[in-house]
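User: Batch of two.

Assistant: Item 1 of 2:
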Amino acid sequence: MAVSVEPRSNATSDVATVVVRGACPHDCPDTCATLVSVQDGRAVRIQGDPDHPVTAGFLCAKVNRYLERTYHPDRLQYPMRRVGPKGSGEFVRVSWDEALDDIAMRLRSIAETHGADAILPYSYAGTMGLIQAESMDRRFFHALGASQLLRTICSTAGGEGLVMTNGSRVGADPEGLEHSDLVLLWGTNTLTSNPHLWPFVLKARERGARVLCIDPVRTRTAEQCDEWLAIRPGTDAALALAMMHVVFDEGFEDADYLAQHTVGADELRARVKEWTPERAAPITGLDAGRIRELGREYGRAKAAFVRINYGLQRHAGGGMAVRTIACLPAVTGHWRRPGGGVLLSTSGSFKFNRAALARPELGSHTRSINMIRLGEALNSPDAGVGGPPVQALVVYNSNPVDVAPDRNAVLRGMAREDLFTVVLEHFQTNTADWADYVLPATTQLEHWDVHFAYGHNSATLNRPAIEPLGEARPNSEIFRQLGRRMGLPPELFADDDIALIKVALDSQAETFRGVTFETLMERGWTRLNVPTPYLPFANGGFGTPSGKVEFRSERMKALGLDPLPTYIPPRELPETAPELAKRFPLSLISSPRHYFLNTTFVNVASLRKGAEPECIVHPNDAARRNLQGGERVVIHNDRGHFGAVVRVEDSVREGVVWAPSIWWGKLSPDGQNANAVTSQDETDLGRGPVFYDTLVEVSAAD
């Protein structure tokens, strides 16, 4: 387990310290390599690995507090069965055998009575590790014949948009960013959601690169950039089209790259000819002259690095927006040089053997339910779900009562007396309050796992640093035990977690040559078999059907979408929903609070810091509503409402309200959060959520 044992002279005692290599488990591009110091079986320190090229010895403000979360006094340590009304949070302690036996019996009865697809798993990225997130759990539900969950809540729209243009979820190498001569941080609050990229940004700036932030909110990242471009929410594709108009119009395109490595260049040129800066200006809210100059800056650059994140794809046209931005480096040939290109995700380079882990073929004939439509699935099974009503919900690595859109619809569904709910958790979340059984899961310090990244190119191993607290068990072991009790094929559940890691690493991909269990055990992390910096598309080699960047996409056409890049406006904007906008004229953005990661860490007091939900509105919008900074307000629309304390600042553009999230309902004054007002609508590609495609009004609280 340990990488070193060092007798050290401490201030209080002389105790041997064991340092254990691990990985941050959270849904963040950085996937940090960690070092956990353990004394007498207790973790006493967590830090970033100084040898890792991206972690570089530091952790974010949240994970620096990971020990507080692990040893939190409210940590769940024993299985519990509900004894009070649903939602009351009233439970009694039971044994593991009692809990697992009863859960298996109830699931078996539901499968026999209603069909196994009446059982729905619900999970996402509470941990990003492959073993605790998509191994034994997937084998269990696939073999059982349960409904498949479409895991769309974060990245599918942008991911599909990237695939339609470039053919894969592969992007520019962040370790090459320091060579860039122009950095566009587009729809990303880097210092909050990707902080280990920032040192590379600073190196580029030291070499002379300008750093621009394109965002409706002047985030802490925008504050540190050379310029903030306050774009209207959901209009990013219009800006990208206008930038390409300038590039073509003023002769900045790379004709050779276009001829060799792209499809549809002439059609793209014709399309963007219509998208003058003057046309894009009223759509984006940016000055036409500034749009033109931005196009020139991008065209003159030799290696512009465009970092886009997932916020800008949480609109009706989110997939098309990412697809359109992804065209930029192919037009200018910036893919040829270190520091050039576009980065949404590096995950496509990680060729773990996920099929062997999850065994998807066992469940290939069951129905699929979109996780963002959980409220609909639990309340209105005839509205597109098909098959039997959901009778059992098994939740792990997620907190759907607080994170799923249209929160009040989810709550109505969770309140059904005939719904059997099991929740694997670390804490008594709002979701756990509605469970029939709550099972204590281990944290990252207490189990084995292996991790990919979507913000760099190294795989990382996580070793357990301490024994599980109380009776907590890894997710993998819980599903292993349930599978045996359900009488499912025993060979599916024979692998222990180390064996599962070796299964995941059993890949024939060239990028995985040299990535082995032995190398990971030795160092804790291993860079994929790619050069440094990695230039994935310097000489073409795109993963599209043509092998080229597809400005024109026949796959898009087959989906009934425009085969060329275009602008698809948000569904909820004054110009697209004028009647709705008369009542709810403000666009809501509910991106993460700096000290939260979705709902993780919200219950850590040192990170909550006595704060409560807040929202930020522009001074002009506040004046129209007679709002004063510091007063309580209600953000509302027809779907619901949530309360906050208002701040009046010009750090958001006019017409926008920013409510940093996601708060636990039970830790909010009114028991609600921002998802009370978001919808279950889907994006153009990937069936993703439209969290930031939401019109609201802000009113003084009664």
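Item 2 of 2:
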Amino acid sequence: MVGFGDDFKELVRSSTNLVDLVSETVSLKPIHGGRDFIGLCPFHDDKNPSFHVYPDRQTYRCWVCDQGGDCFRWVMEIEKLPFPEAMESLARRARLEVPKKKRDEATSDNQLKKTDSLAVVEWAVNLMHSTLRTSAKAENAREYVKKRKLSEDTVRNFRLGYHPEDWNWFLDQARTRFTPAQLVAAGLIQERNNGPGYFDNLVGRLVFPIIDERGRPVAFGGRVLPGGNIESDAKYWNSLESAIFHKRRTLYAFDRARETIRRSKTAIIVEGYMDCIACHQAGVTNAVATLGTAMTEDHVRFLRRFAEKVVLVYDSDKAGQDAAERSISRFLAEDLDLRILSVPSGKDPADYLEDHTSEEFYSLTASASEAWEYKLRSILQRISINTIAGRQQVLNQMMEFLAASQGLAGSIREDMILRNVCGRVQVDERMARQQLKELRGQTQKKGFTRRDAERQPVELKTRVENALERAEREVLEIILTCPETIDVIRHQIGADDFENARHQRLLDLCIDVWKEDGDLPELGRMIIAAESDSDLLSLINALVDSAEEKGIFRLMNDQPNAHEQAGGASAPSHLERVLRPILERREKRLNLVSKQLLAQPAQSMSILDDGTIDALRRLHKFRQSQMGNPTEMK
């Protein structure tokens, strides 16, 4: 790999615990006594755990979408980094010193910009945090922090900061360290619209650093302070999206809430920074907050990897209730226990926790309504069901609500919700189902089409393979299980004898490892040789798993050896049986070529068609390899 030697790459690999690395993004559960870990796949919309991590192999694979790889590929896919940056990230994580690279081995401009932005944001976090704690200019901010009853530990743990009332402060502080372009890319400053120059964001605001799931500061939120000289229509300002910050997926304080969410299997989502911080200070440490946006599908899919239940906590005023109702229809079909909680007495979570304990708050969340029930209760508060017209109105609104959740159509969850709603509203269930069906109309068909499309890759993956493809796979299973058979196998077949392109690549690699490096193609050696290639690593994992299920090692050792092969090596009967259909296919092809040649008048090689010449060359090359003769066909 560019910029790093193989020795350093393997040092990084051996110093990285893949289970710990993946667990930072995916909630994993051990199976088979810890030989295997499973979780929801981050590479597709996974409903049931199909993502496997293999600690002994230091690889992973999804059994549905077939994404696979090692620690380097993981960082490359999750962080969207090229290999050199992924290597550096893992090296720093393992506290290894990264070898210095020559200038011509430096990363590309885009990679450098991303790395620079992370460095700029980290610098700004430290600068503003120090300013809040020690600068005379931050007295107003410190008074506000005291008024909100935030402790010193809380200020330090959340790295809260302050930007003085100076529109060029970042530019002045960054002089000789960062360029204006780097500050713009990191979201700290903007170009002026009414002339040349720049101005700072976050001026006169209490600042909340936004940390990603890997613990890196990537953006900021800022609150205008009462009593200051900065006037703004927006009380809060959030960083714009950038190469390192994606608002629709990021949750404030997730880095601090991750472990509690994983242990409790429950995530609590509040509306703002201060509510979230107040929750953590009070001991509600599985609280996170969205960043000035409503809850998105990306947020739900992200949290589903760690939690089985999500509680959305909204203020109990009308604005909070309206926000709750707008959020929930899109998430009904998600494989998640979604609850809605309105804090009583018109309070927000921060106010409630001033007068109540974390245990009392957790009790509230435990009694939170399911999303559909919250919607029904909200409608019933507005419309009485004491009349037929009222019941019809309630039913109409609930059917519209359910129809808006396309992924719910035809599911068991929809069936249970419908039964509950009809029982509460006292309407005929058959009529309600018909009404819902009519409301969905064409969109229902699209919903089924979408689910069919989602199932299609799985069905294709699990289709019955023909006998020859199964034979190819089993040859590779034998090599990975009994690598000492490689010398026998390479004298029998070559990659050209395989039809499947993936199988060809892996067989070529096995032979190269044996012939060029003198190493047996053992599992660990093949994982290294695969060079973090996702396709190859996924195939290797699949083959090793299927070999274990078939008991390939037992089959190879229980069978008596057949006749002696080239070089004194012997082939077990099971291997000969697996190779037979592949050898027979080759013989048929060669016989066909021979018949075609015999049917033609004598002619020189120069006027044979390309396909015939290629077949003859491959035949000659194979015969020579069987005899151990190094001469090549001219």
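The first helix runs from residue 6 to 14.
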